[in-house]
Amino acid sequence: MEKPDLQTVLQTLFTLYSDTHHDLENHTAASKWLTQLQSSVHAWEIADQLLSLDNETEYINYFAAQTMHTKVCHFFKELPPEVHTALRDSLLHHLTNRAGVSSPVTIQLVLALADLALQMEGWDTVVQDVTAR
Fold it and tell me: Euclidean distance between the first and final Cα of the chain, in Å?
């Protein structure tokens, strides 16, 4: 899969979650495409970009947070060690910025951070870093 642009991802999410036409073929195609995106290496960046949007749309935030959790849990080895710190800082930033956002989004981000803490070598100050925010 080539890296999709953010607008394509947003439109596909809209098709899956908000399209009022209830076209089963389009919903199935959108679901399949988003699943392929989540399995691709591009999902890291796309999820981070979606979480960085000033957007209160629940399904967009949940998809991005759940993608982050899935990537950290199952695909962490895709990332070279030199970007682990940036991923940690990004997850902490998204959690801090989403203090008032719904529980399901927060839960997925916390799970991603917990999985990262278990897998990231050299992160010896997990508790201090999380509580400092």
Answer: 36
Q: Which pTM does this prediction carry?
A: 0.90
Read off the pLDDT of residues 68-92 as tens digits, 9 standing for 90 and up.
Answer: 999 999 999 999 999 999 999 999 9
Cβ pair 99, 133 in contact under 8 A = no
Per-residue three-class SS string for the chain: CCCCCHHHHHHHHHHHHCCCCCCHHHHHHHHHHHHHHHHCCCHHHHHHHHHHCCCCCHHHHHHHHHHHHHHHHHHHHHCCHHHHHHHHHHHHHHHHHCCCCCHHHHHHHHHHHHHHHHHCCCCCCHHHHHHCC
